[in-house]
Amino acid sequence: MCPPDILNQDLHGRRAIVTGANSGIGFVTAKQLAKQGASVTLACRNEAEGRARADEIRAEVPNADLEVRKLDLGDLSSVHAFANGYLRDHDSLHLLINNAGVMNTPQGKTVDGFETQIGVNHLGHFLLTELLLDTLKKSAPARVVAVSSCYHDKAMGREGVIVLDDLHFENRKYEGWVSYAQSKLANLLHAKQLAKRLEGTGVTAVSVHPGWVRTQLMRHTMPGWIQDYVMRPILSMMGMVEPWEGTQTTLYAALAPDVADHPGAYYSQTGTYRDKSKNAGGWPLESPNPHAHDDEMAQRLDELSRQLVGLEAASAHQAPEAAQPAGS
Ligand SMILES: NC(=O)c1ccc[n+]([C@@H]2O[C@H](COP(=O)([O-])OP(=O)(O)OC[C@H]3O[C@@H](n4cnc5c(N)ncnc54)[C@H](OP(=O)(O)O)[C@@H]3O)[C@@H](O)[C@H]2O)c1
Q: pLDDT tens-digit profile of 59-118?
């Protein structure tokens, strides 16, 4: 758990974006940051749901400074529209929490033709981060937190690797867990490479594993009612925790002063790793996946991601006009 002084830090005057803030870990992260006084942008694929969840936060935190903006990470034009809208209305950003994600989805493609999990979990966040980077630097000290997973190491028995020349499973058989592991390893390497690029700027990038948390993430693996009702006592005994507990690592990575001394590090709640001695987690933890320490891979992924999201030809994906904030 986060030490109380971190959860009592005064965040007035600090601006945060939380992706996937309408559900699970993202919702609790947004609520806690708002409780501490931060101005929080809930970046949600479904604006109506985002607004409903913002109202829930306001019911608990009457002075919460919130806005809801549409962000579909599976559509680069939506990422551009989100960033344009945000930057039109705000000139600072202190915390970017790249939290949204999907897991073990059936084979599919994003609007831009990327495999769904690498597209949503990594490439959408990659573009978002790039578009907000100058503002993060201007606002330093600032943080970028990538919500990765212990499954970057091993997901249901499949070791996490990034196949740079077949990121989208065009020449290999698609498997949902292999794809999830690839996308979560990409989150970790993204934070690592970003940290390198941001050296000396006062912006710290890190990645986290939140633990095994009772959220909607399992929707493509097990019906929610089985997880939440039928199996809940057994799953809880096996280590599944509630969203508040599962938000602690993100909050620590976003707020703890000592995190600035560990740029690019991976912070882990308890997890399942190939090396069982790592299962207790660590803030930070050295990943047992050798690819997580492959600097050349991190750099090549960075270059490929840049190319895939069209940063060299940014105008190709530029939204015609900035999206309006959906609520305030
Ligand atoms: N729960 C765990 O045990 C666990 C363990 C390790 C890592 N994680 C990581 O934790 C993060 C948060 O997941 P969670 O457990 O809180 O699951 P969740 O309750 O399913 O929340 C995921 C969020 O991501 C959003 N999202 C999905 N696709 C999106 C898209 N195309 N564009 C924008 N937003 C999108 C969802 O929006 P919709 O509601 O519109 O779908 C939802 O708000 C994920 O990155 C996940 O990989 C979770």
A: 999 999 999 999 999 999 999 999 999 999 999 999 999 999 999 999 999 999 999 999
| Residue spans of beta strands (DSSP E) within the chain | 15-19, 39-44, 65-70, 95-98, 142-147, 154-155, 158-159, 203-209, 266-268
Closest CA to 254 of 3, 6, 5: 6
Helices and strands: H and E segment counts in the chain: 12, 9
> Which among 217, 269, 279 is the best mutation to test ligand 1's pocket, defined by most ligand atoms within 8 Å of the CB?
217
Burial label, 71 (beta-carbon count in 10 A; 0-12, 13-18, 19+): buried
Pocket test for ligand 1, best of 18, 19, 23, 97 (most atoms within 8 A of CB): 23
Whether the model clears a pTM of 0.85, i.e. scores above it, the answer is yes
Under a CB-based contact definition with an 8 Å cutoff, are residues 160 and 185 in contact? yes
- The region of weakest confidence among 44-58, 280-294, 299-313 is 299-313
223's CB contacts (< 8 A; 6+ apart) are none
User: What residue owns the CA closest to ligand 1's atom 43?
Assistant: 20
Ligand 1 nearest-atom number relative to CA 219: 20
What residue has token string 């990765």? Answer: 148
What's the gap between Cα 21 and its chain centre?
10
Catalytic residue numbers, as ranges: 180
Record the tokens describing residue 157, joined without a space: 């028995």
Give the number of the atom of ligand 1 that is nearest the alpha carbon of residue 78: 32
- Choose among 179, 198, 35: nearest CA to 109: 179
Residues 6+ apart with CB under 8 A from 135: 87, 90, 91, 92, 93
Q: Which residue's CA is minimally distant from atom 46 of ligand 1?
A: 101
CB 146 within 8 A of CB 191: yes
230-250 per-position pLDDT tens digit: 788 888 888 889 999 999 999
Question: pLDDT tens digits for 108-157?
Answer: 999 999 999 999 999 999 999 999 999 999 999 999 999 999 999 999 99
